[in-house]
Design a protein that fits this description.
The protein is an alpha+beta fold. The chain contains 13 helices and ten strands. The chain folds into two domains: 255 residues, Creatine Kinase, Chain A, domain 2 (2-Layer Sandwich); 88 residues, no CATH class. It is 45% helix and 15% strand. The two termini are 36 Å apart. The mean pLDDT is 93.
Length: 357
């Protein structure tokens, strides 16, 4: 899959709806922050220095050894893409919103299945990111570690024996590792238990954020749980801690789900079927409303109410209904009203062949 396929296709590996605990955990992500020795951090670099970093990374990712182990990696400078295409990369979680703010001398490296993406000249020279479906943090870390080791054979990383990997933001110094899981927690939200969980895990060096990470809201009951501490623990310890906490949250969501369904089955079934009706017949649909209905779709699958739907299709709708992807489909800029209309149309088309019991 080329970069053009990436920005035209709403499907992506991390949203396949597979993997352990996929009824609650949508995806697992590992991100490593790395910088190249001898160069200032990106926000202090000259254009010439930024260009040299781009060239060094391009040579590193095109090595025969990396291709043999990881597969082909496509290097794309962000200014080669349109503003809408860059935003689609954000919507698919392949780059950060900050990375596309100024596309000059910035690039992204992506594998064909989109499980690996590397941001070049974001806050750090490299942000190596790996994404897999379900609760697969150990596997995701193993993949990221392998890529990191291969790149380090070519690139001389900024590293201190005392402090670890040196990063632009002090909160990333040490391992440079951010591990996170994206979770769907509608029942914990319904019972107002999410606030308690946030307070509890904050004492364990973890943070809970919204759908697009730091500074974003938890639309559609989707949350990201990630580590805050990057120094004083090994990468394996950070990952193990997050896996342990994630499994506890999964258990709590499932337990509450069963209790609510047993005690309020008519209410939940009505809510789920209303969402299905809205998505099938609405002629206008806002982005926030779509995510709310998608959340109810997932709940319907989890409870066995909507047996004709699959996680793969429902997760695809998340990307398909985002603003930039809609404009890419239309081939032009759209007003908010036009986006709402096209969003509703695409949803109806996707659901037209779905038959629920």
């Amino acid at each position: 899959m080329s970069i053009k396929d990436t920005v035209n296709n709403a499907r992506t590996k991390w949203m396949e709806g597979t993997g352990p605990d996929h009824d609650v955990v949508i995806s697992s992500r590992i991100r490593l922050a790395r910088n190249i020795s001898g160069y200032p951090f990106p926000h202090f670099m000259s254009e010439e220095e930024a260009g040299e970093v781009l060239h060094a990374v391009k040579l590193a990712v095109s090595s025969k050894e990396i291709e043999k182990v990881i597969g082909a990696l496509e290097f794309t400078e962000l200014n080669e893409l349109t503003a809408v295409e860059r935003q689609i990369l954000v919507e698919k979680h392949l780059v950060s919103p900050q990375h596309i703010e100024n596309p000059v001398n910035r690039a992204v490296v992506i594998t064909p299945d989109e499980s690996v993406s590397i941001m070049v000249n974001e806050e750090d020279h490299l942000r190596i990111q790996c994404l897999l479906p379900g609760l697969q943090l150990e596997e995701t870390w193993s993949l990221a570690d392998k890529i990191d080791d291969l790149l380090e054979k070519t690139l001389d990383y900024s590293f201190s024996e005392k402090r670890g990997y040196l990063t632009s933001c002090p909160t990333n110094v040490g391992t440079g590792l951010r591990a996170s899981v994206m979770m769907h927690l509608p029942c914990l939200v319904m019972t107002k238990q999410v606030g308690k969980i946030v307070n509890t895990i904050s004492h364990l060096g973890l943070a809970v954020r919204g759908y697009y990470g730091e500074g974003t809201e938890a639309y559609g009951n989707f949350f990201q749980v990630s580590n805050q501490v990057t120094m004083g623990q090994t990468e394996e310890e950070i990952v193990k801690n997050l896996v342990t906490v994630s499994k506890q949250i999964v258990s709590q969501e499932r337990t509450i789900r069963e209790v609510i369904f047993k005690e309020s089955k008519p209410y939940l079934e009505d809510r789920i079927y209303r969402a299905f009706g809205n998505m099938n017949y609405a002629r206008m649909m806002t982005s926030e409303e779509a995510l709310k209905n998608i959340s109810d779709f997932r709940l319907g699958i989890e409870l066995g109410v909507l047996k004709g739907l699959t996680y793969d299709l429902v997760n695809e709708l998340i990307i398909l209904t985002r603003p930039a992807f809609l404009m890419k489909k239309a081939g032009r800029n759209l007003t908010p009203e036009e986006r709402d209309s096209l969003r509703a149309l695409l949803i109806r088309e996707k659901l037209s062949k779905v038959r629920i019991n």
